[in-house]
Amino acid sequence: MKANSGDRPVIRPLPVMDRARQVTDALADYVEEARLKAGDRLPAERELMAALAVGRSTIREAIRHFQALGVIETRKGSGTYLLKPVSRATIHMPRSFDAVHLRDALLQTLEVRRGIECEAGMVAARRRTRKDLVIIEEKLNEMERVHLEKGTSGPEDLAFHLAVYDATHNPLFRQLLEQMRETFERFWEHPFDRQDFARRSFPFHRTLFNAIAAGDPEAARAETLKILDIVEEDIKEMSK
């Protein structure tokens, strides 16, 4: 799609192939080229049908795909709106998995997280600034306060890890890892209906911070592995 004389991107008709996939790609391109932001309204369903020369069901299938990713939302009587930027280069994961296969999905995602998260800890240890350390420690202190008060601290735990990802100064770490966590957003609120899920990992968040503060990448990797190993053990044990 290229901009016309009015600098507004043009959505062009598609050749006959995988229509739903092509509509998804075309919409992603449109959002990127039009520089739409969160809260902006997408073209109406009829406009998309006419522009792309596809049927209503194909448009709705593409819309459902983006809804499942948490990228857009449809407001009754108002239209479809962008919740977060999207492009073909952006990696998106679904917000939830079938509860029947939740255990397997959690373990599969953990396998991917282990490599990325360990690397994030090591990079953070090398690149963290003084300001980064202040922010990470603030999040850690709040996590510890809530944990000691309530026995659990899911949102505060996430805030701590996001601060570590930010300390890498590579936005892809946060994008990838935040979406992996968003995928299981509901699960993390009440994991297996247990308040003690991954509780044993609590002390290693402080030692992870100490490793990052000391600028020790290998120690940061080791402490990250301790946290993730406990998460894996609890997933296996509590999902029996």
TrEMBL record:
Q: Which Gene3D superfamilies match?
A: GntR ligand-binding domain-like, Winged helix-like DNA-binding domain superfamily/Winged helix DNA-binding domain
Where the record annotates domain HTH gntR-type, the positions are 17-85
Q: What is the lineage of its organism?
A: Bacteria, Pseudomonadati, Pseudomonadota, Alphaproteobacteria, Hyphomicrobiales
Report a single Gene Ontology molecular function: DNA-binding transcription factor activity
The protein's name in its UniProt record: FadR family transcriptional regulator
InterPro entries, A to Z: GntR_C, TF_FadR/GntR_C, Tscrpt_reg_HTH_GntR, WH-like_DNA-bd_sf, WH_DNA-bd_sf
Give start-end ranges for the coiled-coil region(s): none
- SMART domains per UniProt: FCD, HTH_GNTR
Q: For this UniProt record, give its keywords in alphabetical order, as a comma-separated list.
A: DNA-binding, Transcription, Transcription regulation
Q: Among its keywords, does the record have DNA-binding?
A: yes
